[in-house]
Amino acid sequence: MTSQEAIFAGGCFWCTEAVFNDIAGVQSVESGYIGGNVPDPTYRQVCSGTTGHAEAIKVAFDPDIVSYDDLLDIFFVTHDPTQLNRQGNDIGTQYRSAIFPLNEEQRAAASAGIERAGADRSEPVVTSIEGPATWYLAEDYHQQYWADEGRSNPYCIATIPPKLQKLRTKFADKLKD
Questions:
Q1: CATH number assigned to the domain comprising residue 16
Q2: What mean pLDDT value characterizes the chain?
Q3: Residue 58: helix, strand or coil by DSSP?
Q4: Running DSSP on this structure, what letter comes out for residue 175?
């Protein structure tokens, strides 16, 4: 099985993790922090907005099943890339919309993905392309949050199902069985 990785920041990592876990060809999704200036940051530090990190996900995927371009398109549909340093009520640079390419091919694809996303919107896409940057895995209790305890969290209940509905509506052919 072939495997590649992609890193996206699109607001709360619990929300983006839930979306990407449902995509065929996605082998794993980790929640973490990237793009800041504090080594080994904690959730509390990142939430303070003082570290420069974004809440993000690292996706391992099989490019023979789902392409990086597909993942980009899903990323842009399932969060609002026109909101600068926020997603809904989550406000701060830690919730920014950003792509962290892992090579020059991904960097070029990210730029093209931003252009595609902008063509479908009246507001400008503010998603940044950042890095290279160091990835830090979030604490264990953040991993698989929606699947484990997020379904009893009122924030998650209000935020994640609409994202999953967008995924199911626009990308039904990309879902796991």
A1: 3.30.1060.10
A2: 96
A3: strand
A4: B
Domain count of the fold of the chain: 1
How many helices and strands, by DSSP H and E, does the chain display?
Answer: 6, 8
- Copy the structure tokens of residue 153: 């969290």
Residue type, 170: K
Q: Kindly name the residue from 12, 15, 47, 156 that is annotated as catalytic.
A: 12
What is the greatest pairwise CA distance in the chain? 41
Structural domain containing residue 52: 4-174
Q: How far apart are CA 61 and CA 64, in angstroms?
A: 9
Active site (annotated) includes residue 12: yes
**Pair 84, 36: CB distance under 8 Å:** no
Contact indicator for 105, 14 with CB cutoff of 8 Å: no
User: Is the pLDDT assigned to residue 99 strictly greater than 90?
Assistant: yes
In the prediction, which pLDDT does 1 show? 72
